[in-house]
Amino acid sequence: MKLDLTDIQGMLLRGYRLPFVRYFFLNFTHAESGRAFIARVTDLITNAEVWDTNKVDKTLNIALSATGLQALGLPVATITTFPVEFLEGMGSRCHVLGDTGTSGKEHWEPMWQGRVDAWLAVNALSPAARCSGFDEVLAIASQTGGVIVVGTQDGGALMVDGRFKPIEHFGYVDGFSEPDFVGGQARDVPGDGKIGKRGLWDEIKTGEFILGHRNEAGELPPAPSPAVLAKNGTFLVYRKLEQNVRAFRDYVSSTGGRFPGGPEKLMAKFVGRWRDGTPLALAPTAMDPAIVADESTYNNFTYGDDPQGLKCPLGAHIRRANPRDSNGFEGRLATRRRIIRRGIPYGPYAPEGKAIDASERGIIFMALNASISRQFEFVQQQWINYGNDFKLGEERDPLVGNNDSGGRFVIPGDPTKNEEAFICSHLPSFVTLRGGGYFFMPGLTALRLLGAGNIDPR
């Protein structure tokens, strides 16, 4: 199936892998001027056409919140066709997501306490290109009027020993296992799609991620009306996650001293991969650089041969986020919950073995999916912040779960080797939500219609 690459925003089909980014957030103060701004900015949006061998120096993408669509004067008859979770917004659904305690909205950054109408992102090869892309948008805002910037967030690949490394602040290599779907532009890596026949992997249906296309149920996903507004669009979840690097390192050091295998293996059990990316499912005893270096191998595994979690614990982060065949039905249930992940760290890298300064550190997490409730919210509520599907009761994700009340994480022992289970108790929250929102990322045709004020629900 061929997709119209000129109509789809580029970051939906591929991760740009550019080392610098600026996310900025706008409010519309006047509907007509706001539409004029959209019309002008649409000409700068990066679509999904394949680049040549050289990367562009910068990209631009845009998404709109429910309040943003209302501020642009979208007809009420169209607004009401959007999913309820999108209309309510992330801040109103903290009880669903487990965003309570220190992650509750009352503790979010000031920008997220109020209205945020639009999300824009400039990904760039250099800080200068990032500023250039941002300035281009500001110039349009100045010329059209009706738009104000309510916040910005810079991020970038972490610089370690003078070079960029694909790691996050806790020290794990990141970026494995992006969904391989029909029409997508991610590398065809075994394990990224859905479980097929004879041990092979198939592409996931396009409609799990892009509106207006058939999903795994053979249906067109529920979408706003008219169809032209939804076609080739998706929903974007944006979350600023602060990482408490000191608490993580202290816990791993103290608890890892009692764990057979030490802190390094404890880190691997938390995530389900060794810090270099080697999956426990394939190498449960040690890192294996050969596995990580081989795209045909590093994600090519299931959990059916490890029902007790002796290799990869049932509650490990990657097993929760994508259980594969853990929950039966040959992985079909997990396939319906897949999300496209985008994001990048923010804040400076804190070298190990040295004092950690007070700088902000974390990761900007973004999810792209056709259904916020069926995909992102289900994973966040049921798999990250609850453990019933893994026979773990109320145990939460050890790495990103809300463990404000003191969590626990069980690492099973092998009874055939007279090993006892190891229980990590009094787990703190290593990650705290600092704000976020739900946005609709339209296709370029829809953006042009929005800019012209030509959305007619009839």
Q: What can you see in these coordinates?
A:
With 458 residues, the protein is of the alpha+beta class. It has 15 helices and 14 strands. It has helices at 10-13, 31-42, 66-71, 76-79, 84-88, 94-97, 127-144, 227-230, 245-256, 262-271, 289-293, 317-321, 332-335, 372-384, 444-452, and strands at 20-28, 58-64, 118-124, 147-156, 158-160, 163-165, 194-195, 201-202, 234-243, 340-346, 362-369, 407-411, 422-427, 431-441. Strands 2-3-1-4 form a four-stranded antiparallel beta sheet. β5 and β6 (163-165) form a beta hairpin. α2 packs antiparallel against α7 (127-144) and α2 (31-42) packs antiparallel against α15 (444-452). The two termini are 29 Å apart.
Describe how the helices and strands are arranged:
Elements lengths: L9 H4 L6 E9 L2 H12 L15 E7 L1 H6 L4 H4 L4 H5 L5 H4 L20 E7 L2 H18 L2 E10 L1 E3 L2 E3 L28 E2 L5 E2 L24 H4 L3 E10 L1 H12 L5 H10 L17 H5 L23 H5 L10 H4 L4 E7 L15 E8 L2 H13 L22 E5 L10 E6 L3 E11 L2 H9 L6
Antiparallel strand pairs: 1-3, 1-4, 2-3, 5-6, 7-8, 9-11, 9-14, 10-11, 12-13
Helix pairs in contact: 2-7, 2-15, 9-10
